[in-house]
Amino acid sequence: MEHIDGQVVAQIKEITGLTFADILQVYYGQQADSHKQSIVLDAAQIIRNSITAMRRHHGPTLTVIAPGHVVDDYCGGILRGVQQASASLNYNVVVHWQPLPPVLSEYSEALFATDLVGQGLFLLTRDNYEMFVPQCRQRNCPYVLSDSESHELESHPCLQIDSLQAVNEATHYLFEQGHRRIGYIAGRLNVPSAKWRLQGYKAGLEAVGLPLDEALIVEGDWMLESGREQAAVLLQLADPPTAIMAANDLMAIGALLAIKSAGLRVPEDVSLIGFDDIGMASTVTPALTTIRQPLEQLGQAAVDMLHQMIQQGNLDVASRFIETELIIRESVQSLKQA
Fold this sequence. Notes:
The chain has helices at 6-16, 20-27, 34-56, 73-88, 104-113, 133-139, 163-176, 192-208, 224-235, 249-261, 295-312, and strands spanning 61-67, 92-98, 120-123, 143-145, 159-161, 182-186, 217-219, 243-246, 271-276, 289-292, 320-322, 325-327. Helix 4 (73-88) links the parallel strand 1 (61-67) and strand 2. The chain has three domains: 1-52, no CATH class; 53-161 and 294-323, 3-Layer(aba) Sandwich (Rossmann fold); 163-293 and 326-337, Response regulator (Rossmann fold, 3-Layer(aba) Sandwich), CATH 3.40.50. The protein is globular. It is α/β, with parallel strands linked by helices.
């Protein structure tokens, strides 16, 4: 295990919200929690690469704006793809952790004013595009948007995931397994992808002739604990769901914990589906059925789009459509067999 300096440890603590003890236990091989190991090691690698790139001060650089409050398997997977593709094209990569909204406008202005954006910008954040896109267009700076399922962003170079259709198909799959009460834990509904995934759930119910029950829809914040809390709300209904779908895997895993805490079993009592297919999805018990986004492929596609724009000297590059796949594991039970 490599040693890391105090600067990196402090940055990991700020980004992940873990304690110094948690982080140091990972680096000294004393941390048994596999999830903490994963997010610490991902954060450390990303920070090391960013520091190295900033110290070189030479060669073309691509900048990634990532959510400042968390490094999870979703962001980590995409950033691994960014780093792999950038290395093959001899780009440095600098990751800037987006600050919270109160200082975001000042931060974005400083980023451009000090020429820290480099040759291209990948916006991995789920919101606040408006803080960066006008500056990019004004300067003819190549940029790519992720999680861009908003019609307002269709004219921009985007990585597009058809979340509506993916969740629609997952809802239909649960119906085929005999489920008629299907709960849904949405992500933050100020985020375009969360809205589209919720629309996919509603469209899926309509397509199979199931009535929409608003009591079966709750809103989380993408994080594990909110999945636990909102699943508990669903389980306390007078007529609780036989299946729960969550807008991402972290909330689905939180729901798994809530189901077990209620003395119930997955999938015997409640079936469960997530979205993303992060590393933990295949290692929890039971293994999580989920909608797979090819995360490393997303990162690689972003770099390829930026490279095309840099080479041709303008922003006229077609958006990329990335396919999803429903991965069937162990967390859904067919009620037809019950």
